[in-house]
């Protein structure tokens, strides 16, 4: 007998593929597209997302950790797979075993790769991460030349590329993006003097807003899953209107009851009815990624009507006011995120009420619920 949950995250493969093809068309001529599938595919399922992108023509994938790259290989994902945030020395052999591409930012990592390459009688391509203003991982740009010189005598490693990351490319008016790109261009020149050939810095924001930064490859993340990195933007203008959100989150009504005026709802009685009120109890709570911060602020769709969440969101349940709905009954579908009828709740709508970003909403919903893939 199969186990079921009341809650289900649905992921549209066709939406993922639409978004990948759109990014391909948006990238500068000759620029390849790396599909970022880290964080379990931004909550959409890393393996299934990679397969969907692969079926649409993607041949390059990016993950954060080495273990993610290994999982992709074990699941049969082909193409180039980049590991972007480093690795433990004891795991270095996995790069060779599973044909993964390391992104490095320390001499110790380069030496570990070189030693293993010599031991195995192999060569391995590496990409260097440069910090051009993100102030996160990476070699500081003014230290790159010295760092590259230090790698020259290491056997078994081949300098293939250099990468960096933009902190504000979601804003088309950001000054830091062009400033960072100027620094990165100098880093690319340093790398190419030593035989490297691939430069990549453009993330989703830069793909959409800064075509001059696309270089040899772009790394698309949130846009592949149907959202603009800036969050809510004018969808009637600009490239973001072509992106299709791939994830929806649905549940069902467990129980209906009518409460008298003056009745407190949920923990702490942070909501109290002012008149006779019909509530629906939904089996969704913060365990499922529906943040407690959404208490008394979020809305869900029932019967194609937006209805408010009332009272505190619990670990596994929440309550909504359905007083205006005459036909709602136990078992009816409730949409936490996605379309029902003519209305649509987006990750941006939810993120705005959480004072957060669409990335977090997608990861929370996708990584805390059963996922079903459509189309």
Q: Report the strand count.
A: 21
Q: What would the principal axes of the Cα set say about the shape?
A: elongated
CATH architecture of the largest domain: Alpha-Beta Barrel
CATH evolutionary superfamily of the largest domain: Alanine racemase
The profile of the biggest β sheet is: 10 strands, mixed
Q: What value does the Rg take, in angstroms? A: 24 Å
Span between termini: 25 Å
Number of alpha- plus pi-helical segments = 11
| CATH class category label of the largest domain | Alpha Beta
Report the mean per-residue pLDDT as an integer. 96
Helix-strand makeup class: alpha/beta
Low-confidence stretches: none
How many domains would you count in the coordinates? Answer: 2
Proportion of beta-strand residues = 25-35%
What are its keywords?
single chain, 375 residues, alpha/beta, TIM Barrel, Lyase, Ornithine Decarboxylase, Chain A, domain 1, 10-stranded mixed beta sheet, 11 helices, elongated
Could you give a quick summary of the protein structure above?
With 375 residues, the protein is of the alpha/beta class.
Written overview of the protein:
The chain is of the alpha/beta class and 375 residues long. The protein folds into two domains: 12-239, TIM Barrel; 247-374, Lyase, Ornithine Decarboxylase, Chain A, domain 1, CATH 2.40.37. 29% of the residues lie in helices and 26% in strands. It is built from eleven helices and 21 strands. It has helices at residues 13-26, 38-42, 46-55, 66-74, 93-97, 107-120, 144-151, 175-193, 204-209, 347-354, 358-366; strands spanning 8-12, 32-36, 60-63, 80-83, 101-104, 124-131, 139-140, 157-163, 198-202, 217-220, 247-252, 255-259, 264-265, 271-272, 277-282, 299-302, 305-310, 318-321, 333-340, 343-345, 371-374. Strands 1, 11, 12, 15, 16, 17, 18, 19, 20 and 21 form a ten-stranded mixed sheet that branches. Strand 13 (264-265) and strand 14 (271-272) form a beta hairpin. Helix 1 (13-26) crosses helix 3 (46-55) and helix 10 (347-354) crosses helix 11 (358-366). The chain is elongated.
């Amino acid at each position: 007998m199969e186990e079921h949950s009341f809650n289900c995250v649905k992921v549209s493969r066709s939406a993922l593929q639409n978004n990948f093809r759109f990014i391909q068309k948006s990238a500068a001529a000759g620029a390849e597209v790396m599909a970022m599938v880290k964080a379990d595919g931004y909550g959409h399922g890393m393996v299934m997302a990679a397969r969907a992108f692969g079926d649409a023509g993607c041949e390059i994938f990016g993950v954060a950790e080495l273990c993610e790259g290994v999982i992709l290989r074990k699941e049969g994902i082909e193409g180039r797979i980049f590991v972007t945030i480093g690795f433990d020395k004891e795991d270095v052999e996995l790069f060779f075993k599973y044909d993964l591409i390391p992104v490095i930012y320390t001499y110790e990592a380069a030496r570990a790769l070189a030693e293993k390459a010599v031991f195995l009688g192999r060569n391995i391509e590496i990409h260097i991460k440069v910090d051009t203003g993100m102030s996160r991982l990476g070699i500081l740009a003014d230290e790159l030349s010295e760092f590259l010189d230090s790698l020259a005598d290491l056997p078994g490693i081949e300098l293939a590329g250099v990468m960096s990351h933009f902190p504000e490319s979601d804003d088309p008016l950001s000054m830091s993006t062009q400033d960072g790109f100027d620094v990165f261009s100098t880093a690319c020149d340093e790398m190419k003097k030593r035989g490297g050939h691939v430069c990549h810095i453009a993330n989703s924001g830069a793909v959409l807003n800064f075509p001059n930064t696309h270089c040899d490859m772009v790394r698309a993340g949130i846009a592949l899953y149907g959202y603009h990195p800036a969050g809510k933007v004018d969808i009637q203008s600009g490239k973001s209107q072509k992106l299709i959100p791939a994830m929806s989150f649905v549940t069902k009504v467990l129980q209906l009851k009518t409460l008298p005026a003056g009745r407190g709802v949920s923990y702490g009685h942070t909501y109290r009815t002012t008149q006779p009120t019909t509530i629906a109890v939904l089996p969704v709570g913060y365990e499922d990624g529906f943040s407690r911060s959404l208490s008394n602020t979020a809305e869900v769709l029932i019967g194609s009507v937006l209805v408010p969440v009332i009272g505190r969101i619990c670990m596994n349940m929440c309550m909504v006011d359905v007083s205006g709905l005459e036909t709602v009954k136990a078992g009816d579908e409730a949409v936490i995120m996605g379309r029902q009828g003519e209305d649509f709740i987006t990750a941006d709508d939810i993120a705005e009420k959480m004072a957060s970003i669409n990335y977090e909403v997608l990861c929370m919903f996708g990584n805390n619920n059963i996922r079903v893939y459509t189309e």
